[in-house]
Amino acid sequence: MEFSDDPYVLELLPEFVDTWLEDISTQLNVLIESNNSDELYRMGHTLKGSCLQFGLESIASLGIELMGYAKEKKWEQAKLLERRLLIEFDRIKKELSAK
User: Fold this and answer.
1) Are 48 and 63 in contact (CB under 8 A)?
2) Residue 69 and residue 78 in contact, taking contact as beta carbons nearer than 8 Å
3) Where are the alpha helices (DSSP H) in the chain?
């Protein structure tokens, strides 16, 4: 993955990744289990927008997918995204630490 050469982006990216790993691990399943489609949609929307700002298009597309599942109340599909999101953010974290 190509990361921005912008020093500010590179400085903020590790904390950004850690925050999303924490949020996904602690909040995503709670929103799904409580059938909170509004907050799940909001989480997907925030994920999409914030990842696009960092150039993380692959994760942004998962945010769009999550928004769709929330809107359609497809809880099982949303749950399956949790693992994919964690894998993607973990991959980025490893790439950053290898720099």
Assistant:
1) yes
2) yes
3) 7-23, 29-33, 37-53, 57-72, 75-98
Structure tokens at 38: 């509004």
DSSP 65: H
pLDDT per position as a tens digit, 37-83: 999 999 999 999 999 989 899 999 999 999 999 999 999 999 999 99
| Number of CB atoms found within 10 A of residue 24's CB | 19
Which domains does the chain carry?
A: 7-98 (1.20.120)
Whether pTM exceeds 0.85: yes
Tokens coding 51: 């990842």
- Segment 14-44, tens digit of pLDDT: 999 999 999 999 999 999 999 999 999 999 9
